[in-house]
Give the backbone structure.
Amino acid sequence: MKIALFVTCVNDTLFPDTGKAVVALLERLGHRVAFPPAQTCCGQMHLNTGYPGEAVKLVEAFTGAFEDCDAVVAPSGSCAAMVREWHARLAARSGRERLAERAAALAPRVHELSELLVDVLGVTDVGASFPHRVAYHPTCHSLRMLKLGDKPLRLLREVRGLDLVDLPDAAECCGFGGTFALKNADVSAAMCADKVAAVKSTGAEVLCAADNSCLMHIGGALGRQRSGVRVAHLAEILASTS
Amino acid sequence: MTMPTYVGMPAFPKAARAAVADTRLRGNLAHATGTIRARRAAAVAELDDWAELRAAGKAIKDHTLAHLAHYLELLEERVTAAGGTVHWARDAAEANAIVTRLVRATGETEVVKVKSMATQETGLNEALAEAGITAHETDLAELIVQLGDDRPSHILVPAIHKNRAEIRALFRARMPSAPDDLTDDPAALAEAARRHLRAKFLSAKVAVSGANFAIADTGTVLVVESEGNGRMCLTLPDTLITVMGIEKLLPTARDLEVFLQLLPRSSTAERMNPYTSAWTGVTPGDGPQAFHLVLLDNGRTATHADPVGRQALRCIRCSACLNVCPVYARAGGHAYGSPYPGPIGAILSPQIRGIGSEVDASLPFASSLCGACYEVCPVAIDIPEVLVHLRARAPKRPAERAAMGAAGWALNSAARLAAAQALAGRGRRFARHARVPRAWTDTRDVPVPPAESFRAWWRRTRDGS
Ligand code: SF4
């Protein structure tokens, strides 16, 4: 199957290894990966910071870049949720009826990585090996907007050597929230501190999630504390054959 | 007694900073919200038709709001026919003036009050005090707040920020009838409050209440509560004055089937409410012989005019959204600068008051948009959606506007994004000294930009494939 990768602007710019991992993983499973070069950003930061006018321009750019694709994968629960839950709604609210129709037609073909693997490709054992103790943080938009449920956990349970440990209060927000982390830095840091304590209580070596933005926030605090816990995107663990 | 007001409250992040550093407050809140959260989840899980009930609650409220004028007029007609008097208040000042005039007309200088969000919103107690009328709060937590010259910090548990030891000290200092050997045992504290309040109930001639629901086609008003203080206030005095937001309306008594299930399970995690008082106008020889219903607008009509924002008017004040909110649990209720704290306050206050003040402009941003509030809301208010909607209306700092405009410009073209990435990649040696805001670097390391973006890697290794 030919799958178009929406790498997301954050991964593209700061975490290219996650994009490379998606490519390696899907090719290992026998699929072809395309990278539509006109892609940029889903518009979430602009929408959530109060700039819907800028965001709708990015909806238009995204739709133009991907509407010819049969299946699109995004290694970010948050960006996939933005496309699926917001693009058509935002276009309609901005009076862009035609764009809303195009976005609504594209939305069901856009999948977060674990959705693509489990629901579309029907695979949970991706042939990975990752001999480490791992805790999984279900990021808010993956959990509550996309309703990924246990799909990422089912994938992780099949990874050779991986010791999956339960994260206490896993469903609690880590406190990132995009510009929330800057605008409400004290509350954000307090939320992060509790998430970090929960992670450390598990004895995990690696914290995994389906969103690098949340991992950048939690990982930034884990690193600052020299906690000895590192973070890894789900794609990187699933691509690993070490 | 000096009552604090909400005028001049600082922006949310500033007020929250103090709360985050208050270890006792953090402990009280984490414990209280954690307990009630687990109990709510269990109470909701008992019903296998919860999703249908929630959808019905939303639909009934939406229908009522769509025909609000019709149902309000019907309510006025039925209340009047049953011997009550209906008053219309455009704003807080009008509502307070009406209540003050009504109390004055009775010649009384004291009133007992059932906990009411609407009168907190209008600052009624302060207005009555100015007119020489003393209002006695009779809900235990509300009494604690009043005795401490404090502000409520939770819709359902207004004194959630106080623990037992603090309450004991407060009773000893401010409640003349409190025994010298008062302990911080909850039963002992409740008993002291009961004795203090009983005297007020027996002497009060006028009561002021809020309302949880009003039934348009019968003119019936309902108050649900847990302590029985409401029942006392609603039945013993000669005159009852009820102040109610215009959105509290339901078309028929049948609609209560839905709401009397949704509300107790969402708020106190009970299957049924301990005290549900309902009255229709005046009944000769039984209960108050004069009944006044003050219908309060105070920004609700303006809120109703916004197709996205109006869903906030479905709120039944259950407080489930507060109890699951990670921001509320750390910032506490006072930081929200209104009687409506937590997620519902963040979308309601800026709408009913307008985004004019510092705190109201900051409230739509007081959320990580985690969505836990929407998930538990019994009338399915999409709080994150309204927050995002209000963020667009909030005033922006010019520097932010410029930065977001520049980011939008760069992100709107793949070529411009690639150029920006190349620049970041070349400057990566300096990344540790880059001007990342201190708000980030205070507690977190900064990721170093990679030498090569994903798209550059793709072009170098894959292009043409
Ligand atoms: S917004 Fe919903 S959850 Fe929050 S208090 Fe109102 S009804 Fe309850």
